[in-house]
Specification:
322 residues; mainly alpha; transport; two-stranded antiparallel ribbon; 4 strands
Length: 322
């Protein structure tokens, strides 16, 4: 809807209904749009100012509803929902498609030698560590020591797991061997994400009521949040790592790739990219970003505090991260 800006638009919430998968998918197709990474700092700051001003009741003359929502999604794509800080460029969800298509395509092309596997798995897990840190839940800062420990443990554990699984490629058919990188990525995600977000598991993440009033921190909420993110990330990688192997296995038997073998990597990267354009937003949409859980599933001390101060409250809400 265009035209003059109506009052009282809730720009703290997404434009679409987040209680439905379709609404969440529309939201994430906008947030993960790769074109967002091409925006200049000036455009990002303009969007941030527009949203902050609107929240304070300051409406620039001539601003339309569509322009407001566009500013909101530019803001959401680049600024952390809890801290408000500008996120690292390659860690933003809008960078997922170009970064992942390149890394995953290379992982699936160069998987036959141990040095190549080691290099691309390290690149992949380092990138994942940046993404997991950038899209963490909560607003508590990490010290350099905590961040360094998390990075080393996450990448080392994930790469070791990936190398172990890739060793299986020597004992299986070429087609099955192409799927080993996916199994490695899935297993590595189960290690990398919890380790990069280990502070949340130790001290908890902020939980609020429906109106955003902070009630405390919960490690149980962090466990649910991280589990949902792991499931989303594994399924996000699945199409790009499951569909291209069938296509590439067929193409490599054809005369074209035998004549131009150097085309294998670009074709693989393109196929992965096509899959990720759809898999990234759809898998982000599997669970609401503003997740919730019953008060009865919280830690006993937090339950007691909430029941004392808010006896009618049944559910708490939290940002699960991405």
């Amino acid at each position: 809807m265009s035209g003059e800006l109506p009052p009282n638009i809730n720009v703290k919430e997404p434009r679409w209904d987040q209680s439905t998968f379709v609404g969440r998918a529309n939201h994430f197709f906008t947030v993960t749009d790769p074109r967002n990474i091409l925006l200049s700092n000036e455009q990002l700051e303009k969007a941030r100012k527009t949203i902050h001003d609107y929240r304070q009741g300051i409406v620039p003359p001539g601003l339309t509803e569509n322009e407001l929502w566009r500013a909101k999604y530019i803001y959401d794509s680049a600024f952390h929902p809890d801290t408000g800080e500008k996120m690292i460029l390659i860690g933003r969800m809008s960078a997922q498609v170009p970064m992942n298509m390149t890394i995953t395509g290379c992982m699936m092309t160069f998987y036959r030698t141990t040095p190549a596997v080691l290099f691309w798995q390290w690149i992949n897990q380092s990138f994942n560590a940046v993404v997991n840190y950038t899209n963490r839940s909560g607003d508590a800062p990490l010290t350099v020591n905590e961040l360094g420990t998390a990075y080393v443990s996450a990448t080392t554990g994930a790469v070791a797991t990936a190398l172990g699984l890739n060793a299986l490629t020597k004992h299986v058919s070429p087609l099955i061997g192409r799927f080993v990188p996916f199994a490695a990525v899935a297993a590595a995600n189960c290690i990398n994400i919890p380790l990069m977000r280990q502070r949340e598991l130790k001290v908890g993440i902020p939980v609020t009521d429906e109106n955003g009033n902070r009630l405390g921190e919960s490690a149980n909420a962090a466990k649910q949040a991280i589990t949902q993110v792991i499931v989303s990330r594994i399924l996000m990688a699945a199409p790009g790592m499951a569909i291209p192997p069938f296509i590439m296995n067929t193409l490599e038997k054809k005369a074209f790739l035998k004549r131009f073998p150097w085309m294998s990597a670009p074709i693989q990267v393109g196929l992965v990219g096509f899959c990720l354009v759809f898999a990234t937003p759809l898998c982000c949409a599997l669970f609401p970003q503003k997740s919730s859980m019953s008060v009865t599933r919280l830690e006993a001390d937090l339950q007691a505090k909430i029941q004392e101060n808010y006896p009618e409250l049944q559910r708490v809400y939290f940002n699960k991260g991405l």
